[in-house]
Amino acid sequence: MRAAVLREAGRLVVEEIDVPVPGPGEVRVRLRATGVCHTDRTVVEGGMPVPLPVVLGHEGAGVVDAVGAGVTDLATGEHVVLTITPGCGMCRQCQLGAFALCEVAAPHLLDGRLPSGQRRLTRGAEQLNHFAMQSSFAEYAVVDRRAAVRVPADVPLEVACLTACGVSTGFGAVVIRAGVEVGETVLVIGAGGVGLAAVLGAVTVGAGQVIVADRSVAACRLAVDLGATDAIVVDDDTDLTARVRALTGGGVDAAIDAVGTPSTVAAAFTALRKGGRAVVVGVADPRAQVTIPLYHLIDQRVLTGSTNGSIRPHIDIPRILGLYRAGRLPLDRLITRRYPLADIGQAMAELGVRPGRAVITF
Questions:
Q1: Please, are residues 196 and 356 in contact by the beta-carbon 8 Å criterion?
Q2: What is the pLDDT of residue 302?
């Protein structure tokens, strides 16, 4: 099968590798669509350490092609999304509903293995590493059964794949982690794929004012087309907190930082009204540190984070797609370009240059 393999930083190449065979408790999925995410490019550029060689891709959707021993609740031919936060269902974190923090699966997100600790990707005698427990820049992926979320067959798989990570992260940050309610004001920093999903989430739950901030005029324009009420095109001299306070008369109820630099985190937090909530979902540099005004905590402002929108995958992904099917969540409008796997390099290069989401189709 064809797969995009990273053997050294900066060099992602489509190669022929072996079709993987699912082990016990695993399924094989014939990929039909995979979203292209900034996280993949960060890995390609060497900004996120993962074992090499690795097959990238972590927003896959497709059709179940084979099932391993012990899998009795999923059949060949069913449509699935490959979530990056499967969870074991049994550890303390999963029992608390925090599947992204699963004590069994989460440690394998970047270690090149499936939740079982095994690797199923090979090229002859050579073993290849998995990425985010799926490696979906490939024609086939083997995943843990719990990573395969059944979705309705009438949902286009190029739409469904976005819920594997980006849409779930942005939508969940607003709806689940920040708990935005009808009429509240929301700031979204960063109008990439995750930020645009956050805008859609805020609009869907009835936020009264949705402000988006980004350096790109085109990205801000797309955010407004998707329902944002205000857009701020920022540069190095922009006082974002002051601009937001002027627009809202005192600060927002919730802020979502989809960029994740010390300055954007600080801006999200200081743009809050007293008692507001800031959720960080972007991490530009995991080594960075953030300084915030201590007394803002006494004013009951909350600064927190979220992985994959804090979703419960087998509940929330179908719910998100249910809103899409009902015409209430236009996820298809996020997709602005499509590429074959052979053009994965171009897809990576155009991230952040052209607004909206890119999808690899098979």
A1: yes
A2: 97
